[in-house]
Amino acid sequence: MQSESYQLEPIGYIESPYKQKFAIPRQPGLVKSAKGSIRMLSPFDHPDCFRGIEAFSHLWLNFRFHETAKQGWKALVRPPRLGGNERKGVFATRSTFRPNAMGLSVVKFLGIEQCGNALRIQVSGLDLLDGTPVLDIKPYLPYADAVPDALGGFADDAPTTGMDIEFSPEAESNLSRAADYPELRQLIIEVLSQDPRPAYQRGPVSDRTYGMHLYHFNIKWRVNQNTNQVLQISPE
């Protein structure tokens, strides 16, 4: 069979609170307070393209792993879920290092925002980096897309860490000055509850200070036993 090549063009771009790969949840829906939008490009930004979409609660997004695409693909990868110590075939994982660097996420549909000529699709529960190119949007169909008796292999259950989150007095003061982002506290709590540290760095106590970027804030924290201590929240 003769192989064919295809050229895909983005239909829009993700606007997300996640400004870097670190701390992005490893699956969609794990951080429900992560809200963002899809900024549609012409000619896909015409309201006719979305007629009837309000009848659906969730959407499938096809996208491109644009930050890792140039690194190529790997036949064997090390899933974070297995601590990064065991190799699995790329097609048995959701690794970003895929032959066509394509990803798939389901997000909650919140509505359509039309501001002048700009059309945005508002979503939540996303696990996508800011600026991610979106290749397609499809409605989620519960009767076909949800398979109650499906097996999840080495990721059969949702990850749970049970970590507590506490904010230092300085971080609390920082939050009080971020009134334009009322969901910031909950977003930080949900992200840190996933323990975004690399598997090899996870331990009960660490003197290391970690940092992540959410919206335009730099959040610093450290780990003490089973608690993530948020130390500082500063504008970039």
Topology:
Layout: E1 12-15, E2 35-40, E3 58-64, E4 76-77, E5 88-89, E6 102-115, E7 118-124, E8 133-139, H1 142-145, E9 164-167, H2 169-176, H3 184-193, E10 210-214, E11 217-224, E12 227-235
Parallel strand pairs: 9-12
Antiparallel strand pairs: 1-2, 1-8, 2-7, 3-6, 3-8, 4-5, 6-7, 10-11, 11-12
Notes on the structure:
The model has no long low-confidence stretch (mean pLDDT 91). The protein has helices at 142-145, 169-176, 184-193; strands spanning 12-15, 35-40, 58-64, 76-77, 88-89, 102-115, 118-124, 133-139, 164-167, 210-214, 217-224, 227-235. A hairpin with a 2-residue loop joins strand 11 (217-224) and strand 12. It has 236 residues and is mostly beta strands. It starts with 11 loop residues before the first strand and ends with a strand.
Care to give the gist of this entry?
The chain is mainly β and 236 residues long.
Task: Sum up the structure in keywords.
236 residues, mainly beta, Elongation Factor Tu (Ef-tu), domain 3, YaeB-like fold, 12 strands, 9% helix
Number of E-type strands:
12
Mean pLDDT over the full residue set: 91
Looking at the structure, the CATH topology of the largest domain is Elongation Factor Tu (Ef-tu), domain 3
Superfamily (CATH H level) name of the largest domain = YaeB-like
Largest sheet: 6 strands, antiparallel, barrel
Structural class assignment: mainly beta
- What string, H for helix and E for strand, traces the elements in order? EEEEEEEEHEHHEEE
- β-sheet strand percentage: 25-35%
Strand order of the largest sheet: 1-2-7-6-3-8
Q: CATH class of the largest domain, please?
A: Mainly Beta
Number of domains: 2
Tell me, what's the shape?
globular
Q: What is the CA-atom radius of gyration, in angstroms?
A: 19 Å
In helices, the fraction of residues equals under 10%
Give the CATH architecture of the largest domain.
Beta Barrel
